[in-house]
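Researcher: I've been going back and forth with a colleague about how Malate dehydrogenase might be arranged in three dimensions. Neither of us has a model we trust, so I'd like an independent prediction. The organism is Paenibacillus albicereus, in case that matters for your notes. Sequence below.
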Amino acid sequence: MAIARKKITVVGAGFTGATTALMLAQKELGDVVLVDIPQLENPTKGKALDMLEASPVQGFDARITGTSDYADTQGSDIVIITAGIARKPGMSRDDLVAVNAGIVRSVCESVKTTSPDAYVILLSNPVDAMTYVAYQTLGFPKNRVIGQSGVLDTARYCTFIAQELNVSVEDVRGFVLGGHGDDMVPLVRYSNVGGIPIETLIPADRIEAIVQRTRVGGGEIVGLLGNGSAYYAPAASLVQMAEAILKDKKRVLPVIALLQGEYGYDDLFLGVPAILGGDGIEKVFELELTPQEQAALDRSAESVRAVVKLVAAPQG
Ligand SMILES: NC(=O)c1ccc[n+]([C@@H]2O[C@H](COP(=O)([O-])OP(=O)(O)OC[C@H]3O[C@@H](n4cnc5c(N)ncnc54)[C@H](O)[C@@H]3O)[C@@H](O)[C@H]2O)c1
Ligand SMILES: O=C(O)C[C@H](O)C(=O)O
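Model: Here is an independent structure prediction for Malate dehydrogenase. You can compare it with whatever you and your colleague have in mind.
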């Protein structure tokens, strides 16, 4: 039997969705179907065609189509959900919860029937709660419902460390644990540059400044853009996660996963390090935390739980 190209659906053809679609195609990860609401069908088709017309120039082979009809997404291997409203200056991500929960629910109702075997990656905010809503609506196993926040938050953290030390971003390693809110937990103790712990290279007050800037990194971009939120780094993060699954790379990445006892939490989607491979979330790593780190994670988990309570009934 001929080997078919992978099919990737991106729901929401706005800033993050369109950027993600282009990056997926540029990396030839599969054919991309971009979906938005019926009122935006023509602009969605237009964006997809425009991207396709970049392919001869850049030399990538991928079909890119735009639609508002889920029939066109039938049998997708991966579905990335970016549908929803973005925050504006002065808003928190949690202010989006009611509107976006409705959107994520309706999108997932369609995905559930058209792509029942898909791995689903959530971006819509507040993303920890939206991943929970998606999980409940889809009824898919937990390894196939994955939220994106840690790859982006870690990318910001590593950017700031590289800037501070004037070293290549390629040599910075670290990660951010917890919810995608201002109380996320960059794990300084597990961060290094070329294997050298950052605590031996950067003074404590500068590390604290980097941690704080990371925590409010999304807000920094929202403030600068004035009418929307970040999309280049979020799209790059989604593509890295999709690639890890499609190529069974078994990357170790911070992802939003359903915790059932790990880190002392039950029935909660939260950012943790995991192996992401051909079967989605293949393993969650449980790290040893100091009492201070655990307390910081507890605060972040409580914030997520409070938002989840607004939109999702606990599993019973
Ligand atoms: N988790 C993260 O790290 C992260 C990063 C960036 C953005 N986000 C979130 O992602 C979401 C999208 O951000 P954006 O900048 O792309 O916003 P955007 O406004 O540019 O695009 C959102 C798109 O979703 C579409 N949409 C709305 N309802 C839909 C539905 N029912 N079906 C299909 N499409 C629908 C809109 O028409 C719009 O085109 C926001 O909620 C934002 O906060 C999260
Ligand atoms: O900050 C936002 O509202 C968007 C996104 O969550 C981000 O971190 O860039």
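Researcher: What would you highlight for our discussion?
Model: I'd start with this: The first helix runs from residue 15 to 26. After that, consider the following. The chain has a mean pLDDT of 97.
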